[in-house]
């Protein structure tokens, strides 16, 4: 074990110092390239049901972390269309073993809620890895956003029918249903993500979410739990400390990397939002209204049909990012949700929009600090073909991308 630790330390060092890509680096290692510098605390804005609070740690996420090629050590087989490699997670086992060893030596273990970090990773029949807690450990297995078992043959529409209904446009931008500029810096792209990409997104999130740093139910300092399951990619946001950190509070694992395809979708969505804003002839530069960004953080939330999220501001990213108004880009997949937004933390003064599966909501510039939240998830509103293909649980998957 000591030998393995030295070996991995050596690989980490090579990645930092050499321009030549290291052939296999686990996501744990790649996330370990973050540099952390303590900063002032205190910009807290989170309430009981809200998700973001005040920044207290300055992080510099490694650009390598968003490059799945640098994370191949965690997986063994082929890539799917979203750039995430499916298959078994043979390397993870050794990394998890390694991590527990590291922790026992670095005196940090008291930091983790689950004191006994699992030392074993099991592989299911499908090749998915999942953590098997050590006997007696206070460990909760990651939440599975999909149901197990066979597909429901009573589903009404076939995948093919659904694709046809979408007219097979790569990124259809519809003209109705709340589409467009909701307020300065806030753009809603209705049904923007194709059904195929939604399906891949669910499968990818499920796969990552069952592994180290996967889905868990976060809580606040006072012990109250959020009404959702969460997983963070790139950097971990912890509602308990209200900071970005380089490990999950649930299991001490480094946050998984953001799949390259997710980032591409974000960047294309921002460009298309610029296209919409550009139709307003009074705007000389659309980037003044909505700056572009390259995400290095993705918070993935799964809401069951009783899930919700209180009004809050997302303001734990770096002051540079916030000052520039770099946008939050939100993808909705699964059941629709009622989304509130406004200038104050007051539901009675907030506007409401229904976010449906495939919608992309972007808020930056003058809208970067809006209060927003999810009041309800609308049951049985997800596209049937999405459920048929993925067996996504009843509820809603939401991914919010940010640049630290
Ligand atoms: O689920 C949503 O639409 C919003 C999520 C959100 O606000 C957050 O993760 O900060
Ligand atoms: Fe938020």
Automatic annotation (TrEMBL):
<keyword id="KW-0560">Oxidoreductase</keyword>
<dbReference type="InterPro" id="IPR037151">
    <property type="entry name" value="AlkB-like_sf"/>
</dbReference>
<feature type="domain" description="Fe2OG dioxygenase">
    <location>
        <begin position="294"/>
        <end position="404"/>
    </location>
</feature>
<dbReference type="GO" id="GO:0141131">
    <property type="term" value="F:DNA N6-methyladenine demethylase activity"/>
</dbReference>
<dbReference type="InterPro" id="IPR005123">
    <property type="entry name" value="Oxoglu/Fe-dep_dioxygenase_dom"/>
</dbReference>
<feature type="region of interest" description="Disordered">
    <location>
        <begin position="93"/>
        <end position="136"/>
    </location>
</feature>
<feature type="binding site">
    <location>
        <position position="314"/>
    </location>
    <ligand>
        <name>Fe cation</name>
    </ligand>
</feature>
<dbReference type="InterPro" id="IPR027450">
    <property type="entry name" value="AlkB-like"/>
</dbReference>
<dbReference type="GO" id="GO:0035513">
    <property type="term" value="P:oxidative RNA demethylation"/>
</dbReference>
<feature type="binding site">
    <location>
        <position position="312"/>
    </location>
    <ligand>
        <name>Fe cation</name>
    </ligand>
</feature>
<dbReference type="GO" id="GO:0035515">
    <property type="term" value="F:oxidative RNA demethylase activity"/>
</dbReference>
<keyword id="KW-0479">Metal-binding</keyword>
<keyword id="KW-0234">DNA repair</keyword>
<keyword id="KW-0227">DNA damage</keyword>
<feature type="compositionally biased region" description="Basic and acidic residues">
    <location>
        <begin position="94"/>
        <end position="104"/>
    </location>
</feature>
<protein>
    <recommendedName>
        <fullName>DNA N(6)-methyladenine demethylase</fullName>
        <ecNumber>1.14.11.51</ecNumber>
    </recommendedName>
</protein>
<dbReference type="Pfam" id="PF13532">
    <property type="entry name" value="2OG-FeII_Oxy_2"/>
</dbReference>
<keyword id="KW-0223">Dioxygenase</keyword>
<dbReference type="InterPro" id="IPR004574">
    <property type="entry name" value="Alkb"/>
</dbReference>
<dbReference type="GO" id="GO:0035516">
    <property type="term" value="F:broad specificity oxidative DNA demethylase activity"/>
</dbReference>
<dbReference type="GO" id="GO:0008198">
    <property type="term" value="F:ferrous iron binding"/>
</dbReference>
<dbReference type="GO" id="GO:0005634">
    <property type="term" value="C:nucleus"/>
</dbReference>
<dbReference type="GO" id="GO:0006281">
    <property type="term" value="P:DNA repair"/>
</dbReference>
<comment type="similarity">
    <text>Belongs to the alkB family.</text>
</comment>
<dbReference type="GO" id="GO:0005737">
    <property type="term" value="C:cytoplasm"/>
</dbReference>
<keyword id="KW-0408">Iron</keyword>
<keyword id="KW-0539">Nucleus</keyword>
<feature type="binding site">
    <location>
        <position position="372"/>
    </location>
    <ligand>
        <name>Fe cation</name>
    </ligand>
</feature>
<keyword id="KW-0963">Cytoplasm</keyword>
């Amino acid at each position: 074990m000591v030998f393995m630790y030295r070996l991995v330390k050596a690989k980490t060092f090579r990645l930092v110092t050499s321009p030549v890509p290291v052939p296999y680096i686990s996501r744990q290692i790649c996330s370990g390239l973050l540099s952390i510098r303590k900063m002032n605390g205190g910009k807290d804005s989170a309430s009981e049901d809200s998700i973001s609070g005040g920044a207290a740690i300055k992080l510099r996420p490694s650009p390598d972390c968003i490059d799945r090629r640098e994370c191949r050590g965690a997986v063994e087989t082929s890539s799917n269309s979203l750039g995430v490699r499916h298959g078994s997670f043979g390397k993870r086992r050794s990394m998890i073993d390694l991590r527990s060893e590291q922790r026992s030596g670095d005196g940090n273990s008291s930091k983790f809620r689950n004191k006994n970090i699992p030392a074993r990773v099991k592989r299911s029949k499908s090749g998915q890895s999942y953590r098997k807690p050590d006997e007696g450990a206070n460990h909760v297995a990651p939440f599975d956003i999909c149901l197990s078992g066979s597909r429901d043959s009573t589903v009404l529409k076939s995948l093919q029918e659904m694709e046809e209904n979408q007219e097979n446009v790569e990124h259809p931008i519809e003209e109705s249903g709340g589409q467009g500029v909701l307020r300065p810096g806030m753009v809603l792209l209705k049904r923007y993500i194709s059904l195929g990409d939604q399906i891949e997104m669910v499968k990818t999130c499920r796969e990552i979410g069952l592994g180290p740093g996967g889905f868990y139910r976060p809580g606040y300092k006072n012990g109250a739990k959020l009404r959702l399951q969460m997983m963070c990619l790139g950097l971990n946001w912890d509602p308990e400390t209200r900071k970005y950190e380089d490990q999950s509070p649930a299991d001490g694992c480094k946050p998984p990397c953001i799949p390259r395809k997710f980032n591409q979708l974000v960047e294309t969505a921002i460009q298309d939002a610029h296209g919409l804003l550009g139709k307003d002839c009074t705007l000389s530069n659309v980037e003044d209204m909505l700056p572009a960004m390259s995400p290095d953080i993705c918070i993935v939330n799964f809401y069951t049909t009783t899930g919700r999220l209180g009004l809050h501001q997302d303001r734990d990213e770096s002051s540079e990012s916030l000052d520039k108004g770099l946008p939050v880009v939100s993808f909705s997949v699964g059941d629709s949700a009622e989304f509130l937004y406004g200038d104050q933390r007051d539901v009675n003064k907030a506007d409401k929009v229904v976010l449906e599966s495939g919608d992309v909501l972007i808020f930056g510039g003058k809208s970067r600090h809006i209060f927003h939240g999810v009041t309800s998830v609308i049951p049985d509103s997800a596209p049937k073909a999405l459920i048929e293909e993925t067996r996504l649980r009843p509820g809603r998957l939401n991914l919010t991308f940010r640049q630290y």
